[in-house]
Each structure stands twice: as structure tokens, then as C-alpha cells.
Amino acid sequence: MSSVKLGDAGDISILDFGPFLDGTNKQAVADAVLASFREMGFVYLVNHGLPQDKIDGMFGWAKKFFNLPLETKQLAPHPPSGTHHRGYSAPGLEKVTQHVYDDEELKRNRSQAPDVKESFESGREGDPYQPNIWLPDDLLPGFREACLDFFWTCREVELSILRALALGFRLPEDYFVKYHTASDNQLRLLHYPSVPVESLTKERVTRIGAHSDFGSITLLMQDQVGGLEVEDVTKPGQFKPAPPVEGSIIVNAGDFLQRWSNDIIRSTVHRVRAPPHLTTKDGMTPERYSIPYDMTTVVDCIPGTYSEERPKRYEPISAAQYIMKRLAASY
């Protein structure tokens, strides 16, 4: 364990994923990843196999896209329904919720502090349920190709992490991979415009409110601005910073992985606020960019996570139904 754990950022382990990828210490890495998911639901990975030049390049494309005029970005509009989660969403359009589905409660939720962010979502080409929505090619040449290339690069990292998780559960390495053959994932580009620090600290606006993710795992690339906070698992309602760690990606478990693991793994609530210890001259937060890559599946409890003493807490469920319900509540 000590050979793969490099330290902690806050309460989250920083692990060297390299020994899993090169085969020199696969079981130790797998055990450490699973342990961090059990304890916190989050882990930092370095030497993760996602080339830094590709990460930097995707952040560059995100900045180019979000720097376009609003009327140009809206030529790739997110549909009114959250169940078709593709295209561009302007600031304030999406309001993240946490298990809120009642129409009246959703209205009250949206009338409170808005999420001041803009986003662009894409996935694999040819998805019959959520086809991509792109800008006309001549408005930002190369953007579509860059998004698709990065999507498939993240896919390879995702599969490696799934193999490590399976090994952590003492299952065949392909156990989770065989449930994820359709690549029904999404790549999100997120931009948080500069806003007054006071507005964030007094919660007149939010960047992303407290929520858990929907699917199995999320890979997150964040810039150096910071602001991500993870709920203290020993003190619900209190949050701790998850600061940027150079050369790392953050991986967190979603609701489906918690359900799939019969609650052995945590799907921890998190949010984005003003970076801690922020010093500004004009009272404004710096703008922030991040790139989450999410994934979904269909689940039943993992072998070994239930017994007569610890029975299954969940029935098998279709991920599509649950994910669409959560997405619809955000719009």
C-alpha cells in the first residue's frame, strides 16, 4: 500500500496508478483505489495514462469555445429537456439538484441561488438516444474532432480504472468492463465565469450546489483555480476542499457504483464554491474551468458485497431510467 500511496490532499488519497498500468504492482493499486472509494468516495490518481498534453489541449479548446459570443454558442443549444444532455447550456439554465423530483419543490429550488456556470456536453457519435449537438463546423474548426478524440482517450483510462476496481473486489479484471461496452458516457466542458466573492460566500449564487453524481464513476480534470469541496463523511453538511494536485485526475464514485457495491463504496456529496483563502483586488473570483467525464451502466449488487448477514439492499435497476430522471430534474 505504501508504495502506491503518495500522500493525501485534504482527506483524499493521492495514488500512483502507474504500477497498475505497467503490471508491476497491480493488486496493491487496486486495493488502494477500492480503499479510498470505501472511505471517501474520491481518489486522486497520478500516472493515470491520460496524456497531459491532451488534457491541456482540451482545456484550450474549452476556453476557445466559451470565449465565443453567446449567440454563436447557442447555435448548438441544449434541448429544453434534461433527458437529452447534449450541446451548450448558458449560465443559469441548469440547476443541479439532489434527489428532488416534485415539480413544486423543483420550482422552489430553481428560484434560489442559481448555478452560475455554462457547459457543453458531448458523447459518442451515433448514440440513438442522445445524439451530439455541434456548432456548424466553420465556426470553430477542429472542436468536434478534439472533443471526440478526448472522449475516447478518457474511455481507455476509464476501462483501466474499472479493471482496478474489479481486482480490488477480487473479481476477474473484466467484471465491470463487460457491463460498459456501449460507451454511453458524456464529456462535459464547464466554465465558471468570474463572480463577486461575496455573492458566493453568502450563497446568493452558486457555482455547483451540493450533489452526488449519477453514474458509476466520474473522471475530473480541474484547472489550478480550485473551489471543489467534498462533504466530510464524519460530519454531514460540512465540506472540505479538494484542491488541484499537479499531474492528477480526480476520480469519484457515483450513486450507481454505491448501489452496485451494496453501499460498500461511497457516492459522496460535493460542490464547487469560491476557492479557499482566495485573495482578490477587486472582490471577484477568478474564472474556473473543469472537464468531467461521466459513465453509466445497469447494475445489480457485486458478488462478494452481500451475504446472509449483509443482504442486498437494492434490486437490479436500469441506469437509463434513473439517470434520465436525475437529468430531467436539472432543467
Topology overview:
Layout: E1 5-9, E2 12-16, H1 18-21, H2 26-39, E3 42-46, H3 52-66, H4 70-73, E4 87-89, H5 103-111, E5 118-122, H6 143-168, E6 186-192, H7 197-201, E7 208-211, E8 217-222, E9 228-231, E10 239-241, E11 248-253, H8 255-260, E12 270-272, E13 288-294, H9 319-328
Parallel strand pairs: 2-3
Antiparallel strand pairs: 1-2, 3-11, 4-5, 5-6, 6-13, 7-12, 8-11, 8-13, 9-10, 9-12
The gyration radius over C-alpha positions equals 19 Å
Alpha plus pi helix count:
9
CATH architecture term: Sandwich
Unreliable spans are 97-102
CATH names the topology as Jelly Rolls
Largest sheet: 9 strands, mixed
Q: How many structural units, i.e. domains? A: 1
InterPro entries: DIOX_N, IPNS-like_FE2OG_OXY, IPNS-like_sf, Oxoglu/Fe-dep_dioxygenase_dom
Region (Disordered): 104-127
Pfam family, one: 2OG-FeII_Oxy
GO molecular function: metal ion binding; oxidoreductase activity
